[in-house]
Amino acid sequence: MSDSDPSARDAEYLAKLQDYYASWKSIPSYAALCEVFGIASKSWVKAILDRLEKAGFVERTPDGMWIPSRQFFARPFAESAVQAGMPVAVSETQGDYFVIDEMLIDKPSTTTMIPVKGDSMIDAGIREGDIAVVEKRNLANIGDIVVAIVDNEFTLKTLDKERGQYILRPANPAFPVIRPQGTLEIFGVLVGLIRKYK
Amino acid sequence: MSDSDPSARDAEYLAKLQDYYASWKSIPSYAALCEVFGIASKSWVKAILDRLEKAGFVERTPDGMWIPSRQFFARPFAESAVQAGMPVAVSETQGDYFVIDEMLIDKPSTTTMIPVKGDSMIDAGIREGDIAVVEKRNLANIGDIVVAIVDNEFTLKTLDKERGQYILRPANPAFPVIRPQGTLEIFGVLVGLIRKYK
DNA sequence: TTGACAGCAGAACGCTCGTTCTTTAGGATG
DNA sequence: CATCCTAAAGAACGAGCGTTCTGCTGTCAA
């Protein structure tokens, strides 16, 4: 799971750090960490962080600032899974952030959310009412699901190429393939999907 | 939405800060922010942050450290759907903002994420590799998609009733309906779905 | 053509931060 | 009972940090 598991004591320190980060969304200075950890010496705080770094829970920016690593956010939902014999490997899920946001969105400033209408992509598992997470850019690869602008309308389709021409392929046999004349304007690329039940 | 909307320029600065935070998970020093913002003066960085604070995007800890606020993580949500005609760029429209986590997760303590395996629910738009957001409880309604424990394995199916008996119905004709003998153990109810492309 | 202001650069300063080194107290080991 | 080791405390220090002030442009309105 990690390079080297932290000791029981370090695990406590880690928990306190995680709690602090959860409410402040930043790692404080050594002085402030003294209070958080309940100890009095800055040097020991550094020693703790150094160990947590070795264990893979925190990292440093190029300019020496402490930041949480992927592992820092890993959630132990493994326990419930293990006991029931879940068929999915636990290791696969370990690194994922419980805060979905971080998982889905790499570039917040160019990412937007668009509700999906219609069922033209139903065979791709995209249904009406789903929310498409779209990264705005005008370059896409063949096979990407893109949001394209066709006749002043947004449409969600798979980008494909046919005889040297870009086409937009729906994932529903009831819908026609769109063959845009002239240039094809791409608004963004689908990077995620969110669905809320009930 | 916010106390006062940031100017166009400040919005750019905010975007850069959000992107930086997305990859480093911390707000850097003024000196480092100079590089991020592409400016040369620390005092101007402070002026920018002061304005972003007024607009409600960043806050300060009691010891003066800059931290992101809730608004910082809000995502733009397009008003119109993907296929509803809309010539205006989505970024321009004054849509809603929301935080994905808050939207999907009502009860953090009882909500867990389980990767989906297999394609037994493909007709419900649930595909292998999707992540199911599951609220842990043992009561569900007919028609709910539930995570049930059958033969010590987790399985995702629609809960139904047949001749007074609870059954688990897959959304794929290739899979059989599960008719558990005795009691049916329900682990939780599907409240959301997340998919990441690429 | 003057002035006001927005947008930024640059310097100056005191204080805090991270780092390193030394010391200490208690437990385990032998 | 000597000696390790762990878990801290504490001091000392220089670099870097945030803050404040002043200066320098360009723009626009009067």
SSE inventory with pairings:
Two copies of one chain form a homodimer.
Chain A: H1 8-24, H2 30-37, H3 42-54, E1 58-60, E2 66-68, H4 78-83, H5 90-94, H6 100-104, E3 111-115, E4 131-136, E5 145-150, E6 153-162, E7 165-169, E8 185-196
Antiparallel strand pairs in A: 1-2, 3-4, 4-8, 5-6, 5-8, 6-7
Chain A binds a DNA duplex (30 and 30 nucleotides) through residues 9, 29-31, 39-44, 46-47, 64.
Domain Peptidase S24/S26A/S26B/S26C (chains A, B): 80-191
Keywords (chains A, B): Autocatalytic cleavage, DNA damage, DNA repair, Hydrolase, SOS response
Enzyme class (chains A, B): hydrolase
SS-based structural class of chain A? alpha+beta
Mean pLDDT of chain A: 81
Radius of gyration of chain A, Cα only, in angstroms? 23 Å
First CA to last CA of chain A: what distance?
36 Å
Our count of domains of chain A comes out at 2
Please report which band the strand proportion of chain A falls in: under 5%, 5-15%, 15-25%, 25-35%, 35-45% or over 45%. 25-35%
